[in-house]
Specification:
Layout (H helix, E strand, L loop, with lengths): L2 H11 L7 H7 L3 H6 L2 E3 L2 E3 L9 H10 L4 H16 L1
Helix pairs in contact: 1-2, 4-5
């Protein structure tokens, strides 16, 4: 992703109520879809854990594969979970 794309997505990420817009626009996945999905990553099979949730460790591993900073991706997912449960 070049700098123009990063700036565009960063601007999109601040839209009210769309904390995960960066992720949604980049990979077309919502946090709920991540929570309920099973992923086959290079050398690693990740399955949804009990209760349909992925662990913090799993989300941290998925983020870089999708091209995101692991910490920022995890925080965005946590914000979305809180938003959906409020």
């Amino acid at each position: 992703m070049d700098m123009d794309d990063q700036e565009l997505f960063a601007e999109a990420d601040v839209v009210a109520g769309e904390q995960l817009s960066l992720e949604r626009r980049m990979v077309g996945l919502t946090c709920l879809e991540l929570d309920n999905a099973a992923f086959l990553l290079p050398g690693t099979t990740m399955h949804a854990e009990r209760g349909g949730k992925l662990s913090r460790r799993s989300l941290e591993a998925i983020g870089p594969v999708l091209g995101f900073d692991p910490r920022e991706f995890l925080q965005a997912c946590e914000r979305e979970v809180r938003r959906r449960s409020s």
